[in-house]
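From the methods appendix. Each design record in this collection lists the tokenized structure first, followed by the designed amino acid sequence. Records were kept in a plain field format so they could be parsed without special tools. The example shown here is representative of the layout used throughout.

RECORD:
FOLD TOKENS (166 positions):
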């Protein structure tokens, strides 16, 4: 399980905490519908973290370190799927439009790819920094996951905005 979490962009420290700290009685009740409804109602950035918050509230042990981390990771994964879908749609559109590229400028699909790679490095460095502020305490993993959730959601919304521009 730890290797899969690390492949998804979680540092080894956080992946190990999630893999090893799973209480047998934990029942995580994550429901992405809170986020979907909020977005459909035009909530935008106000929707970020909503489903994770409800998960913590309605799950047995939801406010334990494990419960909070599981709820945050569940919503982060939801936003990551949205981000990847928006990225693929935007990249396809940019590839189709790259026949109109400005001479001397990189094709838009390549610029989008480079932007996304730079954003991933920014996200990871930012979240590592935020987690370090907890000095290795149990809150570090939650802070890292909350940061990953927030920045992933913001990037998903940014890519959706580019798509909406046409």
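DESIGN:
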């Amino acid at each position: 399980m730890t290797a899969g979490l690390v492949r998804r962009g979680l540092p080894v420290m956080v992946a190990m905490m999630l893999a090893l700290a799973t209480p047998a009685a934990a029942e995580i009740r994550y429901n992405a519908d809170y986020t979907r409804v909020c977005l459909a109602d035009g909530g935008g950035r106000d929707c970020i973290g909503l489903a994770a918050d409800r998960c913590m509230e309605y799950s047995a042990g939801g406010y334990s370190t494990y419960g909070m981390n599981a709820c945050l990771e569940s919503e982060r994964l939801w936003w990551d799927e949205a981000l990847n879908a928006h990225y693929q749609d935007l990249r396809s559109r940019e590839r189709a439009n790259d026949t109109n590229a400005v001479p001397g400028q990189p094709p838009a699909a390549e610029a989008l790819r480079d932007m996304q790679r730079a954003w991933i490095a920014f996200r990871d460095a930012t979240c590592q920094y935020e987690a370090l502020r907890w000095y290795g305490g149990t809150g570090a993993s939650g802070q890292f996951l909350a940061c990953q959730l927030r920045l992933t959601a913001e990037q998903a919304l940014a890519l959706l905005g580019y798509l909406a521009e046409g």
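APPENDIX NOTE: The chain has one domain: 2-164.
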